[in-house]
Structures are given as structure tokens and as C-alpha cells.
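C-alpha cells for chain A. Residues wanted.
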């Protein structure tokens, strides 16, 4: 104990103290005209022996201490931060731990509080107010400067760089003034320049943030946690922060050069044509309505686009890449998310709806994410016409504890887990979707019942699993199904081994389909079977011909039906509006052959012409079943060439078709 703290009688050798009530050097502390007290922790011992309101002046040097400030004091360096360094003796403790109001700390370099599990900081304000932290360099810590439940403090002209977090306000730290700070090059997976967490009514001016993993973020669940005064003097990688509160009828576009955009309690705001990178949120709406987010390019943000308690907004045409969440809605309704591209998410889905109802998610391209589209604790949403592919951890589309949603006409492929998954969800309609090449199941219903699944296309190694009571088909209904058949019923299954005995495109044997027993109850009683249709194609061996050339025409005809169809071949010169019928012949049921016809182009004129062969197959009612065209160019005049070829070709085709041996 004597080694830490000794007392000597004042003498002429005692150093003077002219910078404050108490002075400190590397070996001890003393009062003016008082005794010198030797100490291995001189700053702490000076605080312990100070009186409320004292000023402690710290001389140049390097101090290895963790300092607890529990009195109203001013603690300042004599000559500034470059010559006065305080290293954390214990990296698991704060360098300066301020637990009293009206404390001023200025002019230090503070470093070495590196434990992030304990949230250690260079300077930590714990439930205090009216403190002033200025002109410090807080580097090489977990947090440079951290405020927790602390209000009405001033944080000014500090350098909070090269930490894991620069400056962080947490847990209702309100009415603070944050000005003139540099919070840059903070490193780590979730490193932040300046972050406000559930902390409102703060004023930020002239702060610089650059080179951080994420430069700026404000998070909160209510207006009072987000109503900050942050103007465009605050810069993220050289771009201004646009932080709108209670605003309406604003446009934030490329002319603003915005670096990140927040709209708190706004109406009729348009955010468009921006390039936003490296912030907690690219665009953040809270309690904002009737607004648009369009044509922005957002990358390397934790959330690309976030809506909280916001309604009737349109999010369209944006590109969101390399994010945590791509586009996320929390407690938001009536929004439209359409025609966006969302790629490469880390640990979170690319599109997520959480406790959000009556939204529409349509025509988005979602790929290479941790997961694709997640709907949880949400109802009455429509997820339609999206392409979801290559999720590398979880499912393509997942409904969790969500009811009465419509999942329709989506294409889901190459998910590491399931293409479509329902967990604890009921009364949803799943129709018109294509789920292919998913690693576990095409569709998996887990603890989910009363869902309707029909007219989907499943082509996976394992197509389905269902441990509940769900409906896998509707009644036979006239209408084109997902594989082109004439009736709606159940779903297409790549491993369905039954047959369609009556040709209606619905399976009649081995029903209900139950995915090799993976559908525990019931199954698909009307599995879809592809109905083969007549097809025709025509090609020529090249595009351009001259007199004396041989033209070879290839026609493929296929009629898998049980009825005759009519084959028609027209030759035309569209630029002259000439269309002439070459032949019209019946094609019998079961016909499948290739017709090759060759002849020389005669010398029947010199006027060049662009020509087209058009072929079609008609059913008994005259409806076109299939058609094809072949374009080519020749020199003969149209009329004379048609006169020469029509008789020969018509007879040739009839002869070939007459020779067909029909299957019995």
C-alpha cells in the first residue's frame, strides 16, 4: 500500500501546481503549495482526494489507469492530447468511467479499453448529465466515447477513430449536443462512426464520419427516440446526412448528394436516384406515409431500406446489395415493394415483413442472400411474381406465424434449404409458384394447417413435406394451369408416377400424390400432368439466295393428340403485302416427322425481294395451335416465283404425309 500512496512534507523541491486545484504527473499528485503524494495511479488518487468542483490538471506523460470519476470535477491535460496519454491498465474496464453529473474531461488521448463484450469505452458516461467531453483522442478502444442513459451533455471536438465504435449514444440518452467530432476508420464487423440507439432530441453539427464499416445510424421504436436535430453539416464519406423530422412535400434526389436519408414522421417525401453506402440504414422511414423510395443504389449498409410504423409508401426500382437486411418493414402496412433488385445479404433476409400487414411485394429479383423473402407475424400480404434464387443458408420464401397471405406466381430456385416454407402459419394461399432445384424440399409445411396449395410447379429431389392438415388441390376447374393443361386442380410434381387416363391433364392413378409419404395427411388428388400439344417449325438452310441456288426447307410436324389438325403454309412478301397459300393439308393423329424439300431458285426475274414462310397448325374450330416463320431473301419477282413453286411444293407435302404409317 505504501508503494501506491506516500505523503511527504512540502519543501522547496515540491513541483509547483499552477494549472488547477490539484496537479498530477506520472509519479503522483499534489495541491498548490501542498505535499507531493507519490502514486502508481495518480489521476485516480487525485480524484479520490479532490473536493467537488475542483480542477485537476494532468501534466504531460503516459498514465496506465482505469479512472472512476464520481465527483463534480474538471479533469484536463496541461498541454493537450498529443502529450497526455491514458492507457487502460485493465482492458476489461473503461479508461474514464464518469458516474457523476457536471464532469468535464478534455485534452487526453485515451486508449486500450478493448473489451467489447463488456462494452468498454475510452470515455464512458453512465446515467449522468451536464458533462462536457472535449478535445480528446479516444482511439484503440471498443467504444471511443459511449453515453448510456445520459442527457444534456456536450461532446465536442473529439477524435473517436480507430475503435470498434466511435461515438455511441444508448438507452434514452437525450438532449445531448454532439459537435465537431471526427469518428472515422472504426473497424470490425459492425463498426460504427456515430450511432444513436433509442436516443432522441440530440443535436448533431459538423461531425465527420468516413472510412467506417458503417458511418452513421439512428435506431428507435418511437418518435421520442428518433426526433433528433441533425443537419447536413454532418458528413458521411463526404456526403451530407439528410435527417428530416416532421417534414412534408420534400424531394431528396441526386442533386442533394445525400449520403444517408432519415424521414421521421414525414409525409409525401420522395427519395430517389441516390447512391448510398456504408451506413446503418441507407434509407430509414419512421411513421412516414404517402412517400416514394425509387431508383436508388444502396450497398454495404446494415439495412438497405427500413420502414418502421410507416404506411402507403412505394419502394420501387432500387438496387440493394451487400447488406444485412435488404428491404425490411416493421409494423408497417399498405406499402408496395416492387421491381427492386436485392442481392447478397449477411445473416438476414433480403426482403422481410415483420408484424406488417396488407403490403404487396411483387416483381422483385432476390438472390444470393442468407434467406430470400421472410414474412413473420404478418397477415394479408401479397407476395407475387418475384424471382428468388440461391439463398445460401435458409429458405427462398418463408412464412412464420403468419396467416391469410397470398403467395403466388413466384419462381424460387436453388435454396440451400426449402424453396417455400410455412412454419406455424395457416389460411394462406400458395398458387402459381415454380419451385425448382431446392436443396431440401420444394415446399415444407411445419406445424401449419388449413393452407391451400394448388397450381404450383415442383421439380426438386424432395418436392414436399407436410405434417399438418392442408389442402393440395381445388376442384377440377376449366382454365389453363401452370403446365399448359386445360384444367386447374392440383400441382405439378416432377416425381408423380401416375397417368392421365382421360387426357384432361389431371392424374387419374396413384392418387392422392403424397410425396412418397412426406405429406402426412391426404395429398394432391388432382396432380397436374403436362398435355402435349401439336407443334410446327420451319427453317431454311440459309438466308439469302440467287438464281440457280438450291434452297432447302425443313418443316417439323408433331401431332400427339387423338384428333387430326390442319397444316397451312403461306409464302409472303410483307413489304408488298403479298400473302399466298402454298398448301393446306390435314395432319393425322400421332404424326411426328420432319419434311425436307429442296429445289433450285429459277431465273424468273431480277427484282430482289425479302420473303417469309409462315406455317401454322389449326384445330377443328380454326384456332391456331402453333405457328412459326422463316425469313429469307431472293431475286425472282414474287408473282412468277409463287406460280412456279406452289404446285410442286403442295403436291410434295401431300405425298410425304400420305406415306405416314399411323400408330395403331
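Reply:
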Amino acid at each position: 500500500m505504501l508503494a501506491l500512496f506516500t505523503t511527504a512534507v512540502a519543501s522547496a523541491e515540491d513541483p509547483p501546481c499552477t494549472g488547477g486545484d490539484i496537479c498530477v504527473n506520472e509519479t503522483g499528485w499534489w495541491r498548490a503549495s501542498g505535499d507531493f503524494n507519490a502514486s502508481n495511479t495518480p489521476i485516480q488518487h487525485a480524484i479520490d482526494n479532490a473536493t467537488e468542483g475542483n480542477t485537476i490538471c494532468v501534466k504531460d506523460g503516459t498514465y496506465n489507469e482505469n479512472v472512476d470519476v464520481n465527483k463534480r470535477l474538471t479533469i484536463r491535460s496541461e498541454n493537450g492530447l498529443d502529450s497526455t496519454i491514458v492507457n487502460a491498465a485493465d482492458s476489461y474496464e473503461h479508461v474514464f468511467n464518469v458516474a457523476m453529473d457536471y464532469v468535464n474531461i478534455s485534452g487526453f488521448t485515451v486508449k486500450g479499453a478493448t473489451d467489447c463484450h463488456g462494452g468498454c469505452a475510452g470515455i464512458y458516461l453512465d446515467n449522468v448529465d451536464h458533462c462536457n467531453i472535449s478535445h480528446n483522442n479516444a482511439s484503440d478502444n471498443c467504444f471511443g466515447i459511449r453515453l448510456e442513459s445520459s442527457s444534456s451533455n456536450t461532446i465536442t471536438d473529439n477524435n473517436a477513430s480507430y475503435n470498434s465504435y466511435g461515438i455511441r449514444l444508448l438507452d434514452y440518452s437525450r438532449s445531448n449536443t454532439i459537435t465537431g467530432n471526427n469518428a472515422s476508420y472504426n473497424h470490425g464487423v459492425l463498426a460504427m462512426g456515430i450511432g444513436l440507439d433509442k436516443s432522441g432530441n440530440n443535436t448533431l453539427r459538423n461531425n465527420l464520419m468516413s472510412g467506417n464499416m458503417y458511418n452513421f445510424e439512428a435506431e428507435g421504436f418511437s418518435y421520442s427516440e428518433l426526433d433528433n436535430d441533425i443537419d447536413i453539416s454532418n458528413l458521411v464519406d463526404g456526403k451530407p446526412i439528410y435527417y428530416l423530422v416532421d417534414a412534408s412535400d420534400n424531394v431528396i434526389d441526386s442533386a442533394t448528394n445525400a449520403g444517408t436519408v432519415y424521414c421521421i414522421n414525414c409525409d409525401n417525401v420522395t427519395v430517389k436516384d441516390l447512391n448510398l453506402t456504408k451506413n446503418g440504414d441507407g434509407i430509414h422511414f419512421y411513421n412516414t406515409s404517402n412517400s416514394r423510395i425509387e431508383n436508388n443504389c444502396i450497398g454495404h449498409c446494415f439495412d438497405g431500406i427500413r420502414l418502421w410504423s410507416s404506411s402507403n409508401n412505394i419502394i420501387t426500382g432500387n438496387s440493394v446489395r451487400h447488406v444485412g437486411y435488404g428491404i425490411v418493414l416493421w409494423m408497417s402496412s399498405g406499402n408496395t415493394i416492387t421491381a427492386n433488385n436485392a442481392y447478397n445479404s449477411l445473416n438476414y433476409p433480403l426482403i422481410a415483413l415483420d408484424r406488417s400487414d396488407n403490403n404487396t411485394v411483387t416483381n422483385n429479383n432476390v438472390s444470393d442472400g442468407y434467406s430470400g423473402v421472410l414474412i413473420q407475424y404478418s397477415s394479408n400480404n401479397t407476395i407475387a411474381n418475384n424471382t428468388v434464387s440461391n439463398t445460401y443458408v435458409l429458405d427462398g420464401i418463408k412464412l412464420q406465424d403468419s396467416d391469410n397471405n397470398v403467395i403466388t406466381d413466384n419462381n424460387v430456385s436453388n435454396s440451400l434449404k426449402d424453396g417455400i416454407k410455412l412454419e406455424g402459419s395457416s389460411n394462406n394461399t400458395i398458387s402459381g409458384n415454380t419451385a425448382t432445384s431446392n436443396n431440401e424440399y420444394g415446399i415444407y409445411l411445419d406445424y401449419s394447417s388449413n393452407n391451400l396449395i394448388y397450381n404450383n410447379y415442383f421439380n426438386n429431389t424432395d418436392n414436399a413435406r407436410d405434417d399438418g392438415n392442408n389442402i393440395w388441390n381445388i376442384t377440377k376447374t376449366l382454365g389453363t394451369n401452370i403446365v399448359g393443361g386445360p384444367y386447374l386442380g392440383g400441382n405439378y410434381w416432377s416425381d408423380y408416377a401416375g397417368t392421365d387416363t382421360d387426357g384432361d391433364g389431371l392424374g387419374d392413378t396413384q392418387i392422392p400424390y403424397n410425396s412418397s409419404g412426406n405429406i402426412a395427411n391426404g395429398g394432391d388428388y388432382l396432380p397436374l400432368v403436362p398435355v402435349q400439344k401439336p407443334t410446327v417449325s420451319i427453317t431454311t438452310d440459309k438466308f439469302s439466295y440467287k438464281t440457280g441456288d438450291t434452297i432447302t426447307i425443313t418443316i417439323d410436324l408433331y401431332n400427339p393428340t387423338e384428333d387430326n389438325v390442319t397444316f397451312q403454309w403461306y409464302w409472303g412478301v410483307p413489304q408488298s403485302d403479298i400473302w399466298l397459300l402454298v398448301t393446306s393439308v390435314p395432319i393425322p393423329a400421332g404424326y411426328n416427322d420432319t419434311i425436307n424439300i429442296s429445289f433450285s431458285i429459277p431465273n424468273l426475274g431480277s427484282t430482289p425481294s425479302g420473303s417469309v414462310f409462315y406455317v401454322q397448325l389449326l384445330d377443328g374450330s380454326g384456332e391456331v395451335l402453333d405457328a412459326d416463320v422463316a425469313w429469307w431473301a431472293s431475286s425472282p419477282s414474287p408473282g412468277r416465283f409463287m406460280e412456279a413453286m406452289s404446285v410442286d411444293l403442295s403436291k410434295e407435302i401431300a405425298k410425304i404425309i400420305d406415306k405416314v404409317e399411323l400408330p395403331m
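DSSP finds two helices and 65 strands in the chain. Residues 1-12, 637-650, 659-664 have pLDDT under 50 and may be disordered.
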